[in-house]
Write a structure and sequence with these properties.
- The termini are far apart.
- The protein is 52% helix and 10% strand.
- Among the domains are: 57 residues, Orthogonal Bundle (Arc Repressor Mutant, subunit A); 59 residues, no CATH class.
- With 167 residues, the chain is mostly helical.
- It contains 7 helices and 6 strands, in the order αααααββββββαα.
- Helix 1 runs parallel beside helix 4 and helix 5 packs antiparallel against helix 6.
- A two-stranded antiparallel ribbon has the order 1-6.
C-alpha cells in the first residue's frame, strides 16, 4: 500500500481488509467500524477519492504482477472453447490386452467433445462482447405503449386527476 497517504488508520485497515476478498461490508466490520449500517457506510467509504485511488492502484498492481489482461483472459477462453470443441476418441481400457483402445460401434470410431467446457468458455466470450444483452420490453395497461407524461408544468391537482384516470 502506498505510504504517506494521510488517511485514518481505520480507513487504511478497511482498504487492507477489502483487498483480501473484495467484500466491502465485511471489510468495514473487520476494520473495526460499527456493524450497524455497515453496508451503506462501506459503500460510501469505497467512493472516497483517496480510498478508491489506493484500492485501484493495488488492484492494478496485482493485475500487472500476475500479467492478467483482458486480451490474455479472452485468448484463454478462446483456447478452452476450441479445445473443448475438438472431437477426441472415446477410449476404454481393455483388461485382456492391458491397454487403452478407442471404442467403436458398428465399425465406426466413436468420438466426443467437451460440450460443458465449450459452452462455458463461449458464454464468457459472448458476455464480454455483449452478445447476449437481455432486452426487456415494457408495456402499459393492456399491452399498450407506456404513456410519457410531463408533470413539470402541471399543478398538484392536475397530477392527481391524471393519476386517478390511470386507475
Amino acid at each position: 500500500m502506498p505510504k504517506g497517504d494521510k488517511l485514518p488508520i481505520k480507513q487504511l485497515l478497511f482498504i487492507k481488509e477489502y483487498l483480501i476478498d473484495k467484500n466491502a461490508t465485511q471489510a468495514y466490520i473487520r476494520a473495526g467500524y460499527n456493524g450497524k449500517g455497515a453496508e451503506v457506510s462501506a459503500c460510501q467509504l469505497l467512493r472516497k477519492p483517496k480510498v478508491k485511488a489506493i484500492i485501484d492502484a493495488e488492484l492494478n498492481k496485482t493485475m500487472n504482477e500476475l500479467d492478467i489482461t483482458a486480451e490474455r483472459v479472452l485468448k484463454g477462453f478462446k483456447e478452452v472453447a476450441e479445445r473443448s470443441l475438438q472431437r477426441v476418441p472415446v477410449m476404454y481400457y481393455d483388461k485382456e490386452d492391458k491397454e487403452y483402445k478407442q471404442k467403436t460401434e458398428n465399425w465406426e470410431w466413436l468420438r466426443t467433445f467437451d460440450a460443458g467446457g465449450a459452452n462455458t468458455a463461449l458464454s464468457w466470450l459472448g458476455k464480454y462482447h455483449k452478445l447476449f444483452t437481455e432486452k426487456h420490453e415494457l408495456t402499459g395497461k393492456d399491452g399498450w405503449p407506456i404513456e410519457v407524461v410531463d408533470f413539470s408544468n402541471m399543478t398538484a391537482k392536475q397530477i392527481q386527476e391524471h393519476l386517478k384516470s390511470l386507475m
